[in-house]
Design goal:
heterodimer; A: about 375 residues; mainly alpha; 2 domains; rod-shaped; B: about 210 residues; Rna Polymerase Sigma Factor, Chain: A; 10 helices; elongated
Chain lengths: ~375, ~210
């Protein structure tokens, strides 16, 4: 009763008008004589009509790509965020300059002879000693030392402008300089606004009491973890800003999101698979919801300011480890992936900026130590 | 901008141009992915993966037929997902039907589809009837094996030509034809078991 495979093939091709003229004529002649074959054709035609009646489904969301993440040229948002960070750096410079003036004034007043010989070298020697002592300090002691400054001027942290100047009181300049440096340092690491688990583990005591919980998320950091699912241009641009903040210091934003995935217990099995990106991404986003951010982020700052040297080394190590996997991770999480052009530009700046941020941090801490004691 | 200009701009890294292409093809891509994978979430994931992959591989596109090239990447993403599922099977039929009913909204048919058939269903009871019929057809599609279903989806649902399907699935033209004929025969046999759902003029009696 049923058609043979060859007959099916011919009938199916006939429906789509895919037979050669001679094949077609031959088949049509058979169809006129063979009712069975004709019924077969009609049932197949009806089937095709039914299948063709299936509508094209509407995509449940837009699958457009975020220009900030995928553009081969730098978006303007990146430049804006870079400026914000430079403001922090300049603020840090102003703070340190103010401190240096104060310290030099003290030194000149108290130790005129020494400063005449070689102020720089003697200061450097002092700094080394101080730094050594500082890193040996018990955690609690250092934390106590930091606490009053952070609490004195909570509003300073929101302001990306260079508030402290040489004309400010020393304490004011010191405090805001330190805090802003920490902010800049954090931004440079490209860390999203949650803390790395390692830093928390190393400094469990630092989590509470050092910085008021009202300390805001640094500008831009909160946007880094914004849901990358973009349905419209506005979202896309907002995300671009955030991503760019993380990206400016190098390629570490991929690392940040990657560790976020780890925190959230993202589907490990799927992440290993070629199909993982959407899964990995959707798992990551809830893991770093903004509502959970402030406290861990604050403690990360505190931890970093307590032992800045260790933090620097640690972040550099993770950064390099992350770099090899950065591309894969970025794809796997739909996170920012810088193009080669971005990377090259960032690589040129990054060591200098890192060094500068570290230097400011170091100076602030050394000078602060001298002031406090 | 026409498609060629958009593709050219996208090749030079213009994401916005590529996004216009995505907007033009995302329904088709998702639809194909959904019908191959029979699952809304998997289809969305595969679609997103395919678009990202397409953007990254855009310099490999030599300017012949962007739709076919793009849909090839979509079907490849679906193949990957099917392979993954064979390794980690975890889907349920009920979930799929629920997915389908809740997550997918039909849009107006384009020239590739039979507008007359749809018009016949636009009567008081048509919504339910049409949905039942659609579920019945989808159910029969699902029962096809993957190789047949992919060809049937691309040719009969999406209206692609044999040549396009052959190019995007890396199977010969002859194989496309034979798989399509078998897919149609199996679909017909399956639909015969659901005749009560079919409108009278589409009864598939083999009389």
């Amino acid at each position: 009763m049923n058609a043979t495979p060859d007959e099916l093939l011919a009938l199916s091709a006939y429906i789509d008008n895919q037979l050669s003229p001679t094949e077609r004529v031959a088949l049509e002649q058979r169809l006129q004589q063979d009712t069975r074959l004709r019924a077969e054709l009609e049932s197949l035609q009806a089937t095709v009509v039914l299948v063709r009646s299936l509508p094209t489904l509407k995509a449940p969301r837009n699958f457009t790509l975020d220009p900030a993440e995928f553009a081969k040229s730098k978006p303007s948002a990146r430049i804006i965020s870079l400026n914000t960070r430079w403001v922090s750096r300049v603020a840090g410079l102003a703070s340190v300059a103010a401190l240096l003036l104060v310290v030099f004034a003290v030194m000149l007043g108290g130790q005129a002879d020494q400063s005449q010989d070689s102020p720089a070298s003697s200061k450097l020697a002092d700094s080394n000693v101080v730094d050594q002592e500082l890193t040996d300090q018990p955690l609690a002691m250092t934390a106590v030392a930091e606490a009053p400054i952070a609490t004195n001027l909570p509003t300073q942290t929101v302001t990306p402008l260079p508030q402290p100047t040489a004309s400010s009181a020393p304490t004011l300049a010191l405090a805001s300089g330190t805090i802003e440096d920490v902010t800049a340092f954090q931004g440079q690491d490209g860390m999203p606004a949650y803390s790395p688990p390692a830093a928390l583990d190393d400094f469990p005591d630092a989590t509470g009491g050092i910085v008021p919980p009202s300390v805001p998320v640094p500008p831009g950091s909160g946007e880094v973890i914004e849901n990358p699912e973009t349905d419209n241009t506005a979202d896309t641009e907002a995300l671009g800003m955030g991503s760019a903040v993380g990206a400016t210091g190098g390629d570490t934003d991929a690392q940040g999101v990657g560790s976020g995935g780890g925190d959230g217990g993202a589907d490990g099995m799927e992440a290993d698979d070629g199909m993982s990106p959407p899964d990995g991404y959707t798992e990551v986003a809830p893991a770093v919801m903004p509502s959970t951010i402030p406290e861990p982020q604050v403690s990360a700052e505190a931890a970093r300011s307590i032992d800045m040297t260790a933090a620097t080394e640690e972040s550099e190590v993770t950064e390099r480890e992350g770099e090899g996997e950065a591309a894969d991770e970025a794809i796997a999480t739909f996170s920012t992936t810088n193009t080669d052009a971005d990377r090259n530009a960032a690589d040129l700046l990054t060591p200098v900026l890192e060094w500068w941020d570290a230097f400011i941090e170091f100076l602030s801490r050394v000078l602060f130590y001298g002031w406090w004691h | 901008m026409d498609e060629f200009s958009l593709v050219t701009a996208a090749k030079q890294g213009d994401v916005e141009s590529f996004n216009e292409l995505i907007l033009a093809y995302q329904d088709m891509a998702y639809s194909v992915a959904y019908r191959i994978l029979q699952d809304a979430h998997g289809a969305a994931d595969a679609t997103q993966t395919a678009f990202i992959s397409a953007f990254r591989k855009l310099d490999q596109f030599l300017g012949e037929n962007f739709k076919a090239w793009l849909m090839r990447i979509v079907t490849n993403a679906c193949y990957d997902e099917l392979r993954r599922r064979k390794r980690y099977p975890s889907t349920s039929l009920d979930g799929m039907i629920e997915d389908f009913e809740m997550d997918t909204l039909p849009i107006s048919n384009d020239d590739d589809h039979d507008l007359h058939l749809m018009a016949k269903f636009e009567e008081p009871e048509s919504a339910i009837q049409r949905q039942e019929l659609q579920v019945a057809i989808e159910d029969c599609m699902e029962q096809l094996n993957d190789a047949y279903r992919i060809v049937a989806v691309l040719v009969d649902v999406e209206g692609l030509s044999y040549e396009e399907v052959s190019a995007m699935t890396d199977i010969s033209l002859g194989t496309v034809k034979s798989r399509l004929s078998r897919a149609r025969a199996r679909l017909r046999d399956c639909l015969r078991g659901k005749e009560e759902l079919l409108p009278s003029q589409f009864r598939l009696n083999n009389s």
